[in-house]
Protein 1
Amino acid sequence: MGLLPPITSFHFSVIFLDLQPNIEIGFQSVSGLSGTIETETIAEGGENRFKHQLPTGITFPNLVLKRSLQISSSVTAWCEDAIEKFIFKPIDLLVILHNEQHLPLYSWKVVHAIPVSWSVSDFNAENSELAIESLELKYQYYQSISANDVIPF
């Protein structure tokens, strides 16, 4: 049995499950899929040499998605509702990492995401660069999903 090839991180898609249309895959980057276990330090009674670290909860950073600025987009409209109208609709989304045959390798379901920040890159007439929008989402948690359970699109 030979070694498996390394997994690359540049072939992925993002599906917003609760928006219509729910397939928006044109993101250039996704960050924030991580969790940190918080701990509490407890000193052992009568024994000053030992301190125990006990888990107390898990925190998740904001999910940051970047892509070229879209003129008409259900994701952008969802963010505008939150930021401009203070109307929040928590949604779930999938982040799917694909192999070279475009088949899912690994997937994460991000649960109850809401937009907390939207920004667009600086405009500069001296550079010929794409206008990039950044979406920052707060979410409750994520869970890994088997590649076999991912919705085909």
Note: The chain has a mean pLDDT of 87.
Protein 2
Amino acid sequence: MAGKEPCPLIVVRPSRCIVDEKFLVLVQNLPPGLAVTVHALIHSEDDDFWEAFGHYISDDRGCVNVAKDASIGGSYDGVEPMGLLWSMKPIPGSRPGLRLRKKEVHTPLVVNISVYQGHMNERFKDTRALACAVAERWYMAPGVQRVGITTNGLKGTLFLPPGAGPFPGLLDLWGGGGGLVEYRSALLASHGYVSLALDYMTPKTSGNGTQHVGNDYFEAAFRLLQEHPQVCGDRIAMLGLSFGTSVALGMAVYSPVIKPKCLVSVSGSHVMPVNGSLSDVFAEIKKNAHNTRHDEENRIIWRDLLLPIPDDPSKKVDVGRIQCPVLLLVGEDDQNWPASESAEDMRQMMEKAGNSHLLTIASYPGTGHLIEPPYSPHIRASNFMVAQARTKVIVLWGGQTVPHSKAQEDAWQKTLVFLEDHLYGTKHRCPRPQN
């Protein structure tokens, strides 16, 4: 019809991509100078809703470009191309202690993006949107294969990049919460690594009660990667988060089988009884349970369980014997684990031993314990299942939203560059597959 104004439109590019890719959100066909709210909503697999929103004024062409225009209010301020994701919080009235984590990695994280007239902070569900769009964000790139692993008593999931390979391998160890967490391994496979997400914290059940896995469990997992036909057996890294770092460092130093090409530590520590099993480690930590603190909201702070960093060499991994490059990613506001103090002690130990040239530390102010892949919402505190007692508590992880989110993006890029340098590289026998 002649003279009819075009309807408002949201364009998301790309509308389907990997979760560590940026997207462009563009609103068009608005009246110039209109106050609008751009809103993002995720319906999680736990049936919770997460949202973020920014307040904008359309330009003289009736457009809002989230990548270039400044938000003047909402859940984030300023020019923040990915603020619609990293500033997400549970909607008002949600259950306490939530954490947004992808469980079914073979399906996308679906982000519903809408634009509303006016600067809104609530009642989005009850308000009609001017325009809507949907973005799919994937952990598994097209062609990545997901294979369940149950051989040799192992429990894990193997992710294979598309193509015949061979590819470098990676053993992915999460922290003390237990369970099988797959999304980081799926994302690493999307970047060309055969990644094994390993469940190692769930105690084995026997006639005599429960017992934790021994060192042979991790050695079996490492061998599985070494012997896989699509893996370069001499190009295998280890990635540990939190308690997973303690395991990775211990295995790298003391195991006659596990000889990683490089090692990435996220929010970890080298403090643990070096000659014991996992059960011995937890027994040692339990001795320091009296050091547990709570904040003003009664959230648990566990960082003091390993403090002060011991001088006794039997209480910490002898990182002076490390023979591979190590990347430490440290949040300086980590309230769960003494990552900063541990990193400094590791630096001193390696300097004294003459292998500090193998150590790289990336330390981030205002950053907490949960350093996730980029654009993931910052979670300052959340529910946590204590694997030993099978009881739920709310743990304070730390961090402030803006610096923590910036750190996640930088830390992930540093991780990818580190792995590329030490597992691919121009002189390595694992050439990067051609797309």
Note: DSSP finds seven helices and 23 strands in the chain.
Protein 3
Amino acid sequence: MDDIPIVALYVNDLVFIGNNMKMIEDFKNEMVKKYEMSDMVLLYHFLGIEIYQATPLVVNEKLMKEDDGKKVDETLYRNLAENLFYLTTTRSDIMFVVVLLSRVMNSPSHIHFGAAKRMLRYVKGTMDYGIKYDKGNSVKLVGFCDNVWGGCADDMKSTSSYCFSIGGGVFSWCSKKQKLVAQSSVELCFSFNGNISNNLA
């Protein structure tokens, strides 16, 4: 079932998505053979809806310190990573990726540099993103936390992240690699009435 594309059809416009690139290419080639159509590549407009596709990192991409990539200028990469880190003071959405980029500042490759340039393109395309605190919003404390278990390909250490908002605007966030290798994961569910439930896996 994972290799079946999801297709949306309206008159003569067809949009399809999937999580397998080979499957997507095969489906597209078969459709082009059977019907007269043009490949518009990435989706930008559909039924009057403008679609902006931007992600700070390729989905499921893991950066490694030693990836056999061609080495690049360390000073240039380090300056870029440090400037991106400065942006995290107001842009919580880039925190996780910037932390990944900062782990390879001593020996960056063209793969790392490519990921950093993707981040720059993301920032350029989301210049109007920011944190807004509206006067009329209710003062409600909301927190989210997540953990990438064994997410670091170099030492298999996990990365923990959290963010807290009040009144609709995020005021505290963090993404940090754990000091020890975790042998299992723990999911904690907090409620603000003092009760705590947990699930061990």
Note: The mean pLDDT is 77.
